[in-house]
Amino acid sequence: MGAITLFIRKNGKSRIGREQVSVAFTPSRVNIDKYLERLMNIGKLGTGFTSTMEEAEISDLIAECLQSFQRQPMMIECSPPITIVGDIHGQFGDVMRIFNTTGFPPDTNYLFLGDYIDRGQFSIETILLLMCIKMKYSENFILLRGNHETKLINRIYGFYDDLNKRFGTPRLYDDFTRMFEMMPLTGLVGKRILCMHGGLSADLANAPKLDILNTFARPLHDPPNPSLAIDILWADPDINTKGFKANIRGCSCTFGPDVVAQTCEKFGLDLIVRAHQVVQDGYEFFANRKLVTLFSAPHYCGQFDNAGAVMQINPNMVCSFKILRPEFPGRADPSHQKSATTILLPPTIT
């Protein structure tokens, strides 16, 4: 097992150390290794996760994972190397494909940008797998909140119905909701790459310091529109926008290349990484390569022919993209459609 090279800087190590000691004396009712064993066997006859795991077991896992999120700042500062993952949307097989391609934790550090549930067929399995890994390798496996980790969305896009169908009760949905409300919203890699699910906000652009991203009170219920939190979860870049404008989604805003440039200059950032939108090649640049949209669910919903991608940042802050092409059984992909890696030049070190 590789050494953990990603760590939380905010408030120093002493805060984390004290809390880890206090938790160590509290017996856990969650056997993470057993849970992971069951999850890794999904697909074999008689090994369906929710048919072999009790509701109470899942509830215990949620409760402990909630505490893990609560101990972390709302903006998590971390160091490379790290792999950044965009929207997953219940595509369990593609999560496993990502791990097989870029490395399993803890040998590879990960930062996920949200939207683990809804749309896909395996939302419950996907979020539980990620929660188990989070519990096992808390400091080098980061899960940010996406807009689908809100009741406004997951109540109607599949997650609520899936839980009710499998367990016949909304109790677990309420437990998950409380956990989602504790999740961090942003990540900062090497103090130079800002990560979130949605996008930028006028409240951030007008803030004197980036520390405003640590000021949210928990639990953070579905945020009001407009607000800084709603923009972090929902905002979109738009080439035709100057400044900020209303979003055609009916929620949050769009922002232009000028906002990206100004935000990067003001806070000393080289790049902004966000998710939230399907892009054909799995990643797409904006604002003279100052922002990139990352989407990690290939063949999204079984309806799109998009690729997925993950972004890898090495210890020297050199960034690259691992592209995951859609896989169609029985169909040979053209050679130019094979998975590939595209290398960026390292950001200028200041």
Automatic annotation (TrEMBL):
Q: What is its EC number?
A: 3.1.3.16
Q: Does the keyword Aminoacyl-tRNA synthetase apply?
A: no
Recorded GO molecular functions are:
metal ion binding; protein serine/threonine phosphatase activity
Question: Which compartments does it reside in?
Answer: Cell projection, Pseudopodium; Chromosome
Q: What does this protein do?
A: Probable phosphatase which plays a redundant role with gsp-4 in spermatogenesis by regulating sister chromatid segregation during meiosis. In addition, involved in sperm motility by controlling the dynamic disassembly of major sperm proteins (MSP) in the spermatozoan pseudopodium.
**PROSITE patterns (alphabetical):** SER_THR_PHOSPHATASE
One Gene Ontology cellular component term attached to this UniProt record is: cytoplasm
Read off the InterPro entries from this record.
Calcineurin-like_PHP, Metallo-depent_PP-like, PP1_catalytic_subunit, Ser/Thr-sp_prot-phosphatase
Pfam families recorded for this chain?
A: Metallophos
Q: Which residues form the Serine/threonine specific protein phosphatases domain?
A: 144-149
Q: Which SUPFAM superfamilies match?
A: Metallo-dependent phosphatases (SSF56300)
Query: What family name appears in the similarity comment?
Result: Belongs to the PPP phosphatase family.
Q: Name one GO biological process term.
A: amoeboid sperm motility
Q: Under which name does UniProt file this protein?
A: Serine/threonine-protein phosphatase
Reaction(s) catalysed (UniProt annotation): O-phospho-L-threonyl-[protein] + H2O = L-threonyl-[protein] + phosphate; O-phospho-L-seryl-[protein] + H2O = L-seryl-[protein] + phosphate
The record's principal subcellular location, in a coarse class, is: other
Q: Does the keyword Isomerase apply?
A: no
Class of this enzyme: hydrolase
Q: Which UniProt keywords apply?
A: Cell projection, Chromosome, Differentiation, Hydrolase, Manganese, Metal-binding, Protein phosphatase, Spermatogenesis
